[in-house]
């Protein structure tokens, strides 16, 4: 990504893309028609632990925003890293009706740190097997945070 780029997208409650800005289209390699209505995980890179997304969805379910470093995969099989902020959006009655995400270019140091952590989480997912993969990698993340005597948000902002 370029320093001044912001990738913006919006999804419905099921994670289907309802909006993507031109930079999202550019980096994903998909056309607007291919993206609209598709699951946002169309750009999920296999190097991303399932536990990260479990944490993200659990955080959103608590009506809180979530920050995360994410490795995305473009249509041609290439990849790009982002520092993502995902936020619930609310209707006039105060009910969550969608999710809004803004992603920007992460620092090289943050990418290196996230990639190392995610490799550990992926190894834990493989050890645990498909049924327990999310819980196992999330437990590993929580354990590491406890060892560092910090919470997720503080940790992610120090990378």
Keywords:
159 residues; alpha+beta; Beta-Lactamase; 5-stranded antiparallel sheet; 6 helices; globular
Give a topology summary.
Layout lengths: L5 E6 L5 E4 L1 H7 L3 H4 L14 H12 L4 E8 L5 E12 L5 E9 L3 H21 L4 H15 L4 H7 L1
Helix pairs in contact: 3-5, 4-5
Describe the 3D structure.
The protein has helices at residues 22-28, 32-35, 50-61, 108-128, 133-147, 152-158, and strands spanning 6-11, 17-20, 66-73, 79-90, 96-104. It is of the alpha+beta class and 159 residues long. The chain has one domain (6-158): 2-Layer Sandwich (Beta-Lactamase), CATH 3.30.450. The two termini are 18 Å apart. The model has no long low-confidence stretch (mean pLDDT 96).
Q: Could you describe the largest sheet, including whether it forms a barrel?
A: 5 strands, antiparallel
Architecture, CATH level 2?
Answer: 2-Layer Sandwich
> Strand share of the residues?
15-25%
What is the share of helical residues? 40-55%
Total separate domains: 1
Residue-averaged pLDDT: 96
Q: What is the CATH superfamily?
A: PAS domain
Low-confidence stretches: none
How many β strands by DSSP?
5
Structural class label: alpha+beta
| CATH classification, class level | Alpha Beta
* Biggest sheet, spatial arrangement of strands: 2-1-5-4-3
Number of contiguous helices? 6
From the 3D structure, determine the CATH topology.
Answer: Beta-Lactamase
The topology string of helices and strands comes to: EEHHHEEEHHH
Radius of gyration, Cα only, in angstroms?
Answer: 16 Å
Distance between the termini: 18 Å
